[in-house]
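Troubleshooting entry. The earlier prediction with magnesium ion gave an output that would not parse, so I re-checked the input for stray whitespace and re-submitted. Clean input:
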Amino acid sequence: MRLRQPFRSAHGVVGHRDVLLVRVVTDGGDGWGECAAPVEAGYTDEHVRGAHTAVRDDLAPRLLALRSCSAEDVAPALSAVTGHPMAKACLEMAVLDASLRADGLSLATLLGGTRGWVEAGVALGIPGSIDELLDAVEAALGDGYRRVKLKIQPGWDIAPVRAVRERYGTDVVVQVDGNGSYGLEDADVLAQLDDFGLAMIEQPLPAAAPLAHHAAMGVRLRTPICLDESIISAAVAAEMIAAEACAVVNIKPGRVGGYLEAKRVHDVCVAVGVPAWCGGMLETGLARAANLGLAALAGFTLAGDLTPAERYLENDIAEPPARRGAMVQVPTAPGVGAVLRPEVVASATTSVERVR
Ligand code: MG
């Protein structure tokens, strides 16, 4: 099913999020999954329209052909279809939710999470001006958050970081995210960020850049490099870390094909002592709840993009988690942990298709 959820900002509603949800109906009960794919192609290969047809035409029929299906069966059953990690993750999440509900287990318990509360940080897009950025940082700190992540791109990097540091000193943990918009030739510019004591610079080079380029960038910067888009599996995470292409890992369940692979990426990071954190894709409260369950694992040592969805969605489909300042409560309810608001799901739904 597709839903339309309004994005909110300090200035009111600013556009909409077109979301793909999957509900699986099993003998043991129902489960819900959410696809992380964004509305438009560009940030990743996937987008919500493509994920929708992949789920409907290629992926769901393969699951339905199985006589029985546990969450562990989903990835192997779908492996003959290349790509589409976010579409696959959505189906795995729905099967996980159904089986966890049937077993009375929370996602955090299943995965081995050890924490009841996890730290969230705020991610800030590229605003229209430095003043707008400072207002957004002010609002985030006023809400009790202690870490801000600033999106950067060529021409918008040194000045915004300097402005935030000049205004707030070291009271705030600052990290930046290049979303793959730089080249190795920009290393000298990015090295100027070393003076600002950033927690990390995320994905300066495109995911498609050679591994050697990521490693070479790491040599040029004192700021630790975190990889996001590059980390598509636990095996790739191990390879990137071994090549010293990154010192921190951003783990996103959708990008790696699901929560079970995300746990394996986490385990790789723990095994080699690399800090990890849980990234976000502006999900609804459904997937954000599941991300909290994942982030309860001990290796998620840095604040994640785990702010409740009500921060950026108007009238979210799920009840918000409890929050105390920057700390957000990990769901304990059976399943992936979201408490859906049926009336909001119904009113936000724009289309429903059934695959049998
Ligand atoms: Mg990122």
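This one parsed fine. Residues 2-104+341-351 form a domain with the Enolase-like; domain 1 fold (CATH 3.30.390.10).
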